Input
Amino acid sequence: MKKFHINTNPEKLSDAEIQKQMNFDSFVQGVKPAAGAGAKTSLFKSTKFYAWSAAAVVAAGITGFFMLNNSPEKTIPYVPFIQPPVAAMDIPDTPYEIESAADTIIMHTTGSLITIPAGTFAHADGKDVTGKVELRYREFHDPIDLVMSGIPMQYDSAGKSWTFESGGMFEIAAFQDGKPLQLKPEKTITVNMVSATNANNYNIYYLDTVARKWDYIQANTVENGTLAPAYTMSSENEAEFRAAEAADPVPVAPARPAVADPNAYNFTIDYLAADFPELEAYDNVKFQVDPNDKSYNPKLANKTWEDISIEKQDDGIHYTVTFRDAKVSHRFTVSPVVDGPDYQQALEAFESKNNRYRLSLQNRKQRRQQRMDSLYQVNEQYIGDSRRSQLNERLKTFITGNYNETNKDLMAFRTFDVRRLGIWNIDRPRDFFDNLYSAIKSAAVGFFAVKFVNKMNKPLLFRNVFLTKKGINSMYPIPEKDFGSFPAVTEQLDAMIGITYSNELYYVNDESLKQAGSKGKQVTLQMQQTGDNIKTTDDLRNLLKSGK
Amino acid sequence: MQPAIAMTKNGVYTQTSAEIDAEMVQVQAARKDPRQFEPLYTRYYKQLVTFVFHRTGERETAFDITAQVFYRALEKLHTYEARGVPFSAWLFRIATNELNQHFRKTKKMRMVSIDADGLHSLKESFAETDPVSDDSRLFAALQQLDEDEMELVDMRFFEQRPFREIADIKGLGESACKMRMYRILEKLKQILTTNH
Output
């Protein structure tokens, strides 16, 4: 007698199907709150729940249908391969409306240029597109962008897995009336993407979201014309810069006052205050002879000398005083002091002057940065005079905004010939992450099991953690299943970002991370929650930069 | 070192006491506020719906029963005790009960989903003594197992779960679970030999 239905060709539920049905909010809406904490009575009525459950399934189905077919989101293809870890913090795109019949150059907010020839787009059935087209574009530049975008950075080549370091990445898509468009086979969109590095050993890749892999397109090099400096500098500008620097001297820090030692020799000298601005904090300043200088005789201070000079020593604290006449000269090492009764007043004056000094120094730093910025002009090959100043401003915003550590000399335009809409990347594989990847896969190096706790030492459950390393523009995701076998390399890491099952963000970027690998087989890492104030990638970036 | 986490074909099976403790914290929070059940729901939804679909082969039924499993879990959360066993084992036990109830009510036959890997895995266990060249003979032999025996075979070979997890779901010790599996395989060998 047949007891089981044996199915040798079983179907599988796709991730998309499961995601569509998995809706905790709908689920919990059908749940009545407990009568009190620890209530032991039944929370629900089973029959009601069944009715609700069926309704929820139908509602979820309907919602899913409308989400995919009628809402604005329907224009973005559902790609489970790319799963932003926190949907609310995904990198937003920028919509641009263009006329399909006209040649168009878009200057993105980062300074990147998107050049779209007339008649570039076709509908899904191959027919030409006429009228307005909505172009959507977004860029990813640093590990925070990479983590929050959910775009995989793993690349398989010749049987080996690599982890990419990115020189910048973008996604480009086009729509008309909410329907996705494609490029005509003979058409190419040119993207000159701004990159924070000018390294010549990167490649261009395209993300095939159907085959779930990166496709190598070509090398991205100066030699093949796909890489060029974003800025160039003229010698005239450089001369102007040096002249302006000379006319704007660095302010002098005031010297902190010291109290006169009653057991040491001191004397007073009339000097020009303008020659020693650092001594402005002092009233009734005296010069106290250094106790190590045994050549001083107090009688020398009572004599009238033909010339007395004061010279600041290299240590910035001591001065050399020289008494001179036609026959002899005497040199002493001294330091400025005030008598006890004058000290408090001198200290207050010092604090005030020191605050002004700091402000003055900061202002000068900004003026210097502006002068340096003016040295650079956007590479003329990219855009004509009429828009160059605008492009200059965009690029400066890019540098001084989120990427202010970038040197303009390193800024580059990387040129993509876009023949498919989607995600394009400038990448190179990096040893550190490759080794990490291999270590996890092969279990060939030392490992430790990691337990995550919050500030109250309560256990945390992460579905993913992402590792970043200073100096490498990449991230490495470690899924929950590998938490028991972390490779012992954490001392080389810069930060770790953890994402819980309820999409809360935690991070650690202090010494505890660097020491974790050396603490034995089981390590507890205390993570800090980012909190409610962290709503965007910029917020997260600033938080991690602050080192708090 | 004992691996802290063992992977199954259907997802992650946690084994560390730290993780079991952490889940208990979430359970306690969810007892006070059902909204706090979300991490557990999110974490195990896919595993559960896959488990149910594997046994029913019907999409809508799988989603319905999975919703019912989570409902039951929330309803009975105050009775849950970890006892060194992951929360998932408790959920799978509820799912097994719900499935049994479903098959009783609907009078439908329990499905056994066997893909190529699973079939190969089961055949391998006979390889030394009695290579099974004819799949239909093996399927016929499987029909002679009782429901509990089939459940063990299914979890071990067709879902490729580790013994530790099967033991936790069935509420058995690991060695008892292995012994029971050994006896089922002996039974299958005997059926195959007799029917040869």
